[in-house]
């Protein structure tokens, strides 16, 4: 990990009352983890100026940066700017750059906020840094003339709408965290037994590598493929390898599960949700939906995949297996049909036979 640390504040009554699920913190954690930056704290607070201010005060001296999401807008419950201002004992000011930006959406608004409440969104803390984020050419943002991000000291204020927040963070990452990349090496091991049975071996490994490797152990109740997941993380790839080898040498026999079988289903769904390639994500999500509907409408043993050994049907085979594993939580038993040509390539036939055996 780098020496930088980040605190995250998720703002919104809709999160706390369960009307909306928070996905922003999960996204941000993954993004910062990929940069080798430690997330020290995540808080969820209501739309309250005092609560926002108190949380920022508690964090601002302890973390390099604070990221807030939500509470940015012109309505009565959009109070993040006010909360940030209070945290730094400063005032709000109607910022001319922000006013000019929002004129393109609100018309030629003038006067004060009482007469034109839409100007509340341009009322930001004194001394703010403003960055206009390009919004690109994709819907629904292609008609936008960028989007303004406000930064006050070490607090970066992001919108709460997940799609817009992700778009903004791509640019925020380039602006403030581009030089922070510190590759973090990790390994995951999956076990077909309760973590208590590997506790002795795990504790030995933790003690031997406590200065260089971070271990995590997580019981899993929702999978029929494994019961425990152990992670190893370090900035030093060689240390991770040594730690894994040491741990493996101390474990009971036949307790480690093939990672492909352990996580294949979740990996495909995770790829569909988190890939940066929006076009690919759309195609993959559509494919998953079709296969899910097929498994809902038909019995699994009445469905067949046409397998000719090509790249497209091999990819489809993996998606079908992923949906099967997620839906039935068992190893897939997929039926396939192959139409053999009169003059098949030997390599292709060998691949098909190998795939069947697997």
UniProtKB/TrEMBL annotation:
SMART domains: MoCF_biosynth. CDD domains: cinA. SUPFAM superfamilies: Adenine nucleotide alpha hydrolases-like, Molybdenum cofactor biosynthesis proteins. Residues 7-180 form the MoaB/Mog domain. In the N-terminal section; belongs to the MoaB/Mog family. PANTHER family: NICOTINAMIDE-NUCLEOTIDE AMIDOHYDROLASE PNCC, NMN AMIDOHYDROLASE-LIKE PROTEIN YFAY. This is MoaB/Mog domain-containing protein. The lineage of its organism: Eukaryota, Metazoa, Ecdysozoa, Arthropoda, Hexapoda.
């Amino acid at each position: 990990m780098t020496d930088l640390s980040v605190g995250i504040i998720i703002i919104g009554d809709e999160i706390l009352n369960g009307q909306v699920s928070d996905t922003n913190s999960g996204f941000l954690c993954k993004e910062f983890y990929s940069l080798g930056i430690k997330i020290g704290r995540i808080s969820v607070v209501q739309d309250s100026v005092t609560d926002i201010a108190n949380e920022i005060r508690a964090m601002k001296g302890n973390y390099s940066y604070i990221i807030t999401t939500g509470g940015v807008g012109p309505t009565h419950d959009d109070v993040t700017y006010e909360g940030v201002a209070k945290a730094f004992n400063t005032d709000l000011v109607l910022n001319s750059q922000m006013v000019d930006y929002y004129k393109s959406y609100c018309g030629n608004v003038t006067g004060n906020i009482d007469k034109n409440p839409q100007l509340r969104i341009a009322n930001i803390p004194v001394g703010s840094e403003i960055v206009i984020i390009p919004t690109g050419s994709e819907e629904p943002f292609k008609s936008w003339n960028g989007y303004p991000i406000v930064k006050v000291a070490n607090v970066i204020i992001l919108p709460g709408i997940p799609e817009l927040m992700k778009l903004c963070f791509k640019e925020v990452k380039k602006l403030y965290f581009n030089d922070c990349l510190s590759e973090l090496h990790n390994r995951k091991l999956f076990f077909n037994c309760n973590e208590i049975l590997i506790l002795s071996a795990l504790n030995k490994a933790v003690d031997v590598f406590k200065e260089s490797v971070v271990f995590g152990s997580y019981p899993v109740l929702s999978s029929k493929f494994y019961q425990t997941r152990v992670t190893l993380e370090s900035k030093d790839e060689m240390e991770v390898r040594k730690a894994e080898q040491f741990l493996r040498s101390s474990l009971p026999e036949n307790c480690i599960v093939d990672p492909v079988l352990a996580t294949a289903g979740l990996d495909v769904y995770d790829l569909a949700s988190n890939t940066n390639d929006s076009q690919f994500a759309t195609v993959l999500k559509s494919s998953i939906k079709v296969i899910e509907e097929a498994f809902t409408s038909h019995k699994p043993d009445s469905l067949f995949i046409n397998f000719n050994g090509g790249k497209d049907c091999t990819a489809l085979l993996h998606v079908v297996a992923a949906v099967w594993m997620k839906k039935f939580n068992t190893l897939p038993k997929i039926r396939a049909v192959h139409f053999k040509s009169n003059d098949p390539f030997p390599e292709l036939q060998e691949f098909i036979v190998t795939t069947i055996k697997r």
